[in-house]
Design a protein that fits this description.
This protein has 97 residues and is α+β, with helices and mostly antiparallel strands. Helix content is 52%, strand content 21%.
Length: 97
């Protein structure tokens, strides 16, 4: 019985390690975050898009990586989260104060 539990533990650890490696390799970089943010903001109305694009050019969001995921902050608000090559954007972070 103990041998089966030991094998199950080893297999579980190997799978977790492989998942962590996959997540680290596919973690979106800063450029991916910025491009996705710009695309999402461009989908808004034209005037809001132009204002947001100008604001991003002057004051880009700060990029942070936690190895298996990444995120950006804009005006001390969480603006995007990236994991497994996908970036979720919170466009409310880019609205005026």
């Amino acid at each position: 019985m103990t041998s089966k539990r030991g094998n199950a533990l080893v297999y579980t650890l190997i799978i977790l390690l492989l998942v962590a490696i996959l997540m680290a390799v596919s973690n979106p970089d800063e450029e991916h975050h910025l491009l996705t943010i710009k695309d999402r903001l461009a989908g808004q109305n034209a005037l809001a898009s132009v204002v947001a694009q100008a604001a991003l050019a002057v004051n880009p969001p700060s990029y942070h990586s936690a190895i298996v995921l990444s995120y950006t902050k804009y005006n001390n608000k969480l603006s995007s989260i990236g994991i497994l090559s996908y970036v979720w954007v919170d466009t409310t972070a880019f609205k005026n104060k």
